[in-house]
TrEMBL record:
Keyword Signal carried by entry: yes
Signal peptide boundaries: 1-25
UniProt lineage: Bacteria, Pseudomonadati, Pseudomonadota, Alphaproteobacteria, Hyphomicrobiales
Pfam families xref list: DUF2147 (PF09917)
InterPro entries: DUF2147
Domain DUF2147: start-end pairs: 33-128
Entry keyword set: Signal
Protein name from the UniProt record: DUF2147 domain-containing protein
Amino acid sequence: MRFFDRRALGGAILAAATLASVACAAAAQDAEGTWMREDGATKIRFAPCGGALCGTVVWLKNPHSKARVGQRVFFDMVRADQNSWAGRAFNPQDGKTYSGRMVVSGKKLRTSGCVFGGLICKTMYWVRAN
């Protein structure tokens, strides 16, 4: 007596592997899109640029800010793992570029610009605007 069909077992294994890969892809967070700083002062749009993501200012609450609409403030952000990216961050307030990192968690984004190998960092929080 045969308890299972080998073809059915192979199909079940293939289906399980497909579901597992879809679940992993769904768990990965995406940073592309428009994000508003938690204080409502700035909106940035993250979009592909080359093989990375870049963030550009698309809206400012205060038009007299040192930041400018159209100014790129995140460069070369490449995926470090499922929910985070690493690259460079430009601070319009002081005109300096820092090592940058960003982490997406649901509809929230945390960005950091760091110096001295990450010993000193400034962090900002964002919410998805689209």
